[in-house]
Amino acid sequence: MKNYKILLIHSLPPKKFRFKGVEEVELLFKRFYDPKYILEHNFFVSPTKAIKNYDFDIIILTSTFLERISHEKTYERILKKYSFLEKKKSFKIGLPQDDYWGQNVRDKWYSKNLNLIVSVFDKNQWPIIYPLSIKKNVKIIRGHTTYINSKKFRVIKNKPYNQRLNDIVYRTVGMPFFPNRYGLLKSLIGKFFLKKHNLDFKMDVSNDPKDLIYGDKWVEFLSNSKAVLGSNSGSSVILRDHSHINRLINFKKNYDMNSLIDFEKDFFNKKDRGYELTDISPRNIEAAMTMTLQILVEGKDGGILKKDEDYFCLKEDFSNSSELIPLLKNSDRLRKITLSCFNRIKNNKSLNEKNLVDKINNHIEIFFKKNPKKNNQSDFNNMWYNNLKNFCFSFIHHLKFLIKKIYYEFNNS
What we know:
alpha/beta, globular, single chain, five-stranded parallel beta sheet, six-stranded parallel beta sheet
């Protein structure tokens, strides 16, 4: 890879508070380009004059940065603090994920600020999600919400099934912020299993955000369970702009939370619902690596996993859930399904991170053939103040967490 000077902007929290799968995707390029030529910057830190004036070859805007477009207040910050991006002659790459949330606003911003979009959605969805970007000739290629390294993707913590502590595990964060078919399934699947199968399985299932498990501890948790629940990651609806989002928030305030299953058809117009904007998720990858059976509600799963071969396909009405009782007692069947899932993911070229970077690099080379730049010999030495500000952001974040933890423990002692 050429030593391009790269600006990478994200809004990740400090390392201690990151989901491992999210961090790996956000910082993907640091594994393929020399890190000393990559300036990592956090959205919440105001960019310095040095950043604004520097002649970067490439600017990478990750999903955690681009998701700030969907929030009215943080979008105002983008317009105020990051307006310099539009004028940059760099090759600008967007790695978005939740483009159904504030779709019109995102598409308009992409059309002005990006040269390449790496979309997690099927190509047939692009005209729906990126009409203005397509009109402005922004290049789009297919990506995913997660990727694998073929050398590092291997079975880890492969504990025999009869030695695993739990039969079924699951973690989510309760009801979705904006209710839709897939978000509701994520929330309801855990409650359903606890209610119907409490006496059939040993389960560790929670919808409480306080019970979320991060980083390597999540992998350890998975490796100690025979199976994990899951459903398609994504949305069945599209929120067009901030006004649409605000109307949803107000509508939800007066809506019976026990009837959220009807929310989609009661709030959304026909043109804004009934979609399948989904993809495979890091949770699928982590389960495959620990040889943990995935109990997934039937869906496309990025067009990668095959039902009944790579996972147990749970019907949306949960009518076949009792079939899991004998399955989780059969180690040979568990091994066959989980091994099939592992090999399917390992052999899928679209999930390979090197293939993605090679594809992006081809677009970069084409761009610079058409738009040649002088060899940029300057280094990042004048970025010390920007790096200091990013360090201070991380330090303050940790300090706030520590204060909250001490306060919570003091009041609950």
